[in-house]
Design brief:
The protein is mostly helical. The protein is built from 16 helices and three strands. The chain has a three-stranded antiparallel sheet with strand order 2-1-3. Helix 10 (249-261) packs across helix 11. It is flat and about 90 Å long.
Length: 408
């Protein structure tokens, strides 16, 4: 059934917009009028995945894309409705009526249409990989096969919510230092390119030797003022070239390998990726997905090419009959603690619970370490800014002090 985007007026004359599914434009108008809305414009929504999709500007994609937090809320609500006895199509209809995000509403309407046409829920979700990743689709497929869809959806909601909560806590911890860095850099650039040249003009006509600090300040200011645009272009070109290189297969692998070798930060990146691997693998196994299939799925979501290759090699060895912990230990990439805990889980028959514990341990370690580092970083950045501003003030004041001595 086609999906239409509409703009309409409600009974109070207030403009409203949304998505509606109907057989055609006239049917969509009738459906809106029966809901007490007076259509102003109706147009058919473009499919999210298909050859006829027109390329939108980048800013349009940023504001129209479905966010992971929205998917988590949708999953939680859908699990509640199905657990309460709602048929799948009725549950999707109920969610359509209360979903406000236009991109999510459009996607949900198209998923419902595919289910009505006879596709399974997993098949319908698989048509929108940008919104529902492979782990989501495979877990839904396992839930449909085993008849425990509401339980699987609850697990998916928990996974998404925990990952989102961890990402939000890390972003919140890094927000202030990043703001201070950007703001401090901007202040220094303004001081050196606009304010310092105005103040130091009086020193250029002096016939006496200026202090070394003042000469350095004036030289830096002149260089930035004359060549600032060149530096900006070089920076932009460097970022563009780095982005292209990072997206290439070889560049991505080399970058991920280098990130894992960074002192301090490499350990955090490794632990975060292993936590994602463990939580996802545990959820897949708990919901009936076979180990080989689960390893193939998590290989694509660890977020690091080096670790993904290690998981792929381990999957091959597991397929030959070897234990998972032994296959992972031979890659020399996974932390020793995680390998030991997986070994205990396999030997005790509680691998899923042990994988969850690994994820909890590493996520807590990453969060604690980042909070501690940011608590050290804030005073260091303030100190650096203070030293830079103090150097500028001292460089300006030194010639003034010398002029006062000459006057005396």
């Amino acid at each position: 059934m086609p999906v239409f985007e509409y703009t309409a007026l409600d009974a109070r004359g207030k403009s409203t917009s949304g998505v509606i599914d109907a057989e055609g434009v006239q049917a969509a108008r009738q459906k809106l009028r029966s809901a007490g809305k007076y259509p102003v414009s109706i147009r058919e929504a473009q499919e999210a995945a298909g050859p006829k999709v027109k390329r939108r500007p980048l800013w349009g994609d940023l504001f129209r894309r479905v966010k992971p937090a929205q998917v988590a809320i949708l999953t939680r609500q859908l699990a509640t409705l199905i657990g309460a006895g709602f048929p799948l199509v009725s549950a999707l209809d109920a969610l359509l009526a209360q979903t406000e995000a236009l991109a999510l509403k459009r996607t949900l309407a198209q998923v419902k249409d595919r289910v009505v046409e006879g596709s399974s829920f997993a098949q319908a979700l698989a048509q929108f990989p940008a919104v529902f990743p492979p782990i989501y689709v495979n877990m839904v497929r396992a839930g449909e096969t085993s008849g425990t869809l509401e339980i699987v959806l609850e697990r998916l909601a928990e996974i998404t919510e925990k990952q989102q909560a961890l990402a939000n806590r890390i972003k919140a911890a890094l927000a202030y230092p990043i703001f201070m860095l950007c703001f401090g850099t901007l202040v220094l650039v303004i001081l050196l390119t606009y304010i310092v040249p105005t103040i130091t003009t009086i020193f250029r006509d002096m016939k006496q030797q200026l202090p070394a600090a003042t000469r350095i300040l004036i030289g830096t200011s002149d260089f930035l003022k004359e060549n600032g645009w060149i530096l900006a272009l070089l920076l932009a070109a460097g970022l563009f070239a780095f982005g292209r290189w990072r997206k290439s297969p070889g560049g991505r692998r080399r970058l991920d390998t280098w990130l894992l070798q960074l002192p301090g930060a490499g350990g955090l990146i490794r632990k975060l990726a292993v936590a994602r691997f463990s939580r996802t693998l545990g959820s897949l196994l708990e919901n009936g997905v076979t180990l080989l299939t689960a390893l193939d799925i998590v290989r694509n979501i660890v977020g690091n090419e080096r670790l993904a290759e290690a998981v792929a090699r381990s999957a091959v060895e597991v397929g030959k009959g070897r234990a998972l912990w032994l296959s992972l230990s031979e890659t020399k990439v996974f932390p020793g603690l995680s390998v030991q805990m997986i070994q205990v889980g396999e030997q005790s028959g509680e691998l899923e619970k042990m994988l969850y514990k690994i994820a909890d341990v590493f996520e807590n370690e990453v969060e604690t370490t980042i909070l501690r580092l940011t608590s050290y970083l804030e005073p260091v950045m303030i100190l650096v800014m203070g030293v830079a501003v103090g150097f500028i003030v001292l460089s300006i004041c030194l010639p003034i002090f010398e002029m006062n001595q000459l006057i005396r």
